[in-house]
Amino acid sequence: MLDRNYIRDNPEAVREGLRKRGADVDLDAVLEKDEEWRDLKARGDDLRHERNQVSDEIGELKQAGKHDEADEAIERSQELKAEIEEVEERADELEDELEDALLRVPQVPHESVPEGDDEDENVETRREGFEDLRELPDEVTPHYELGEELDIIDEARAAKTTGSGYYFLKGEGCQLEHALMQFMMDVHREQGYQDVFPPIPIDSESMTGTGQLPKFADDAYKLEDEDLWLCPTAEVPVTNMYRDDILLKDDLPLKHQAYTPNFRREAGEHGTETRGIVRVHQFNKVEMVNFVEPEGSYDRLHELLDEAEEVLRRLDLPYRVLELCTGDLGFKAAKQIDLEVWAPGDDMDDGPEEGGRWLEVSTASNFEDFQARRAGLRYRPERHESTEYLHTLNASGLALPRVMVAVLEYYQNDDGTVTVPEALRPYMGGKEVIEGHEPVGESALGAGEKE
């Protein structure tokens, strides 16, 4: 969350940040609550001071034999006690209201973030990998059709077991997913990341600490009758590992990577835009989470982006880099940079001139101290110095289903097979081509033989 003192001292800067985001936040109501709370705290201090003086007078009056005056002082002390309790009760109520209000105020965009209303005004900064494209079939088969033809992606059977928005991976589809995951984690180990395998259910305090609650409760899956949520991203448990801890300067930068399944109520829109495994309720992802000193967080953001890009470079997948504008910025981020991989199977209006579409596979985000204040993430610059809030960053390294989509579409061949990228072959037992296999069951009869 934003620092209460910062909001109090810089209301116009916060208002400008909210305006740039298009955020509907009643900042005046927050400031009014804060002013009332401060007035009550001051009133409480004055009343306690007066009661202490009265208490001292009671003893002096009794010693002086002034019993009537002592009784009056006792009565005044009791009145003060009741008034203090009333003031403190209201102050506590306001504190809770103010805390809840502050949890709903988004981060102020960094000054370098381009201003814009929505994703259409994000700024493309560069494209990579389009200079030497591999030769593609005249008509690239979309991954959802190719996956069915090869019998490596099965959405129909997942709909029977779980519902729409889920899928089975089978055979070489599983191998490809596992290969991508192990490959990504090996790349990030080279970059100095320590592996973490976190618990998948996480509590509300953790979800609040990273900013998923209260704003995005409707997007998450909650376990019935328990204060536990299914992990929406490994960012949540990994960031909260150090909740209310004090790290040392020598610990930073601290870089963790975690592979987890993730669960989100992302229904999206029906149709080609979301058909297949592009937008689903359960997906796997490798997440990179960084804890850094504040002064180095923007240098680290660009290093983090490069670490995510390395996966795409080694897979030889064409992609582009986008700076998100203020209107598309995430609730808790001060600055975000997207990586979008090229998937040539479906032509979209906003795709490149080569055809196909862009798929977001990573967002490198700098949250500055926004999460740190919510989760109590602090560090001590020197052992004798006071603690400070650190900065947190993260990026996907990468979202596996969409990378799989790009591999299946970009590396497919005229005969309907898929060439395995060279970087993945050691993780697939040396396999060079995904050929698929025949489907099973009566439903497969009459489907025809693969050529």
TrEMBL record:
<feature type="binding site">
    <location>
        <position position="287"/>
    </location>
    <ligand>
        <name>L-serine</name>
    </ligand>
</feature>
<feature type="binding site">
    <location>
        <position position="394"/>
    </location>
    <ligand>
        <name>L-serine</name>
    </ligand>
</feature>
<keyword id="KW-0648">Protein biosynthesis</keyword>
<dbReference type="InterPro" id="IPR006195">
    <property type="entry name" value="aa-tRNA-synth_II"/>
</dbReference>
<comment type="pathway">
    <text>Aminoacyl-tRNA biosynthesis; selenocysteinyl-tRNA(Sec) biosynthesis; L-seryl-tRNA(Sec) from L-serine and tRNA(Sec): step 1/1.</text>
</comment>
<dbReference type="GO" id="GO:0006434">
    <property type="term" value="P:seryl-tRNA aminoacylation"/>
</dbReference>
<dbReference type="InterPro" id="IPR015866">
    <property type="entry name" value="Ser-tRNA-synth_1_N"/>
</dbReference>
<keyword id="KW-0030">Aminoacyl-tRNA synthetase</keyword>
<dbReference type="InterPro" id="IPR045864">
    <property type="entry name" value="aa-tRNA-synth_II/BPL/LPL"/>
</dbReference>
<dbReference type="InterPro" id="IPR010978">
    <property type="entry name" value="tRNA-bd_arm"/>
</dbReference>
<feature type="binding site">
    <location>
        <position position="233"/>
    </location>
    <ligand>
        <name>L-serine</name>
    </ligand>
</feature>
<keyword id="KW-0436">Ligase</keyword>
<feature type="binding site">
    <location>
        <position position="396"/>
    </location>
    <ligand>
        <name>L-serine</name>
    </ligand>
</feature>
<dbReference type="GO" id="GO:0005524">
    <property type="term" value="F:ATP binding"/>
</dbReference>
<comment type="function">
    <text>Catalyzes the attachment of serine to tRNA(Ser). Is also able to aminoacylate tRNA(Sec) with serine, to form the misacylated tRNA L-seryl-tRNA(Sec), which will be further converted into selenocysteinyl-tRNA(Sec).</text>
</comment>
<dbReference type="Pfam" id="PF02403">
    <property type="entry name" value="Seryl_tRNA_N"/>
</dbReference>
<comment type="similarity">
    <text>Belongs to the class-II aminoacyl-tRNA synthetase family. Type-1 seryl-tRNA synthetase subfamily.</text>
</comment>
<dbReference type="InterPro" id="IPR033729">
    <property type="entry name" value="SerRS_core"/>
</dbReference>
<feature type="binding site">
    <location>
        <begin position="264"/>
        <end position="266"/>
    </location>
    <ligand>
        <name>ATP</name>
    </ligand>
</feature>
<feature type="binding site">
    <location>
        <position position="280"/>
    </location>
    <ligand>
        <name>ATP</name>
    </ligand>
</feature>
<keyword id="KW-0963">Cytoplasm</keyword>
<keyword id="KW-0067">ATP-binding</keyword>
<feature type="binding site">
    <location>
        <begin position="280"/>
        <end position="283"/>
    </location>
    <ligand>
        <name>ATP</name>
    </ligand>
</feature>
<dbReference type="InterPro" id="IPR042103">
    <property type="entry name" value="SerRS_1_N_sf"/>
</dbReference>
<dbReference type="GO" id="GO:0016260">
    <property type="term" value="P:selenocysteine biosynthetic process"/>
</dbReference>
<comment type="subunit">
    <text>Homodimer. The tRNA molecule binds across the dimer.</text>
</comment>
<dbReference type="InterPro" id="IPR002314">
    <property type="entry name" value="aa-tRNA-synt_IIb"/>
</dbReference>
<protein>
    <recommendedName>
        <fullName>Serine--tRNA ligase</fullName>
        <ecNumber>6.1.1.11</ecNumber>
    </recommendedName>
</protein>
<dbReference type="GO" id="GO:0005737">
    <property type="term" value="C:cytoplasm"/>
</dbReference>
<keyword id="KW-0547">Nucleotide-binding</keyword>
<dbReference type="GO" id="GO:0004828">
    <property type="term" value="F:serine-tRNA ligase activity"/>
</dbReference>
<dbReference type="Pfam" id="PF00587">
    <property type="entry name" value="tRNA-synt_2b"/>
</dbReference>
<feature type="region of interest" description="Disordered">
    <location>
        <begin position="44"/>
        <end position="72"/>
    </location>
</feature>
<feature type="binding site">
    <location>
        <begin position="233"/>
        <end position="235"/>
    </location>
    <ligand>
        <name>L-serine</name>
    </ligand>
</feature>
<dbReference type="InterPro" id="IPR002317">
    <property type="entry name" value="Ser-tRNA-ligase_type_1"/>
</dbReference>
<feature type="domain" description="Aminoacyl-transfer RNA synthetases class-II family profile">
    <location>
        <begin position="138"/>
        <end position="421"/>
    </location>
</feature>
<feature type="binding site">
    <location>
        <position position="264"/>
    </location>
    <ligand>
        <name>L-serine</name>
    </ligand>
</feature>
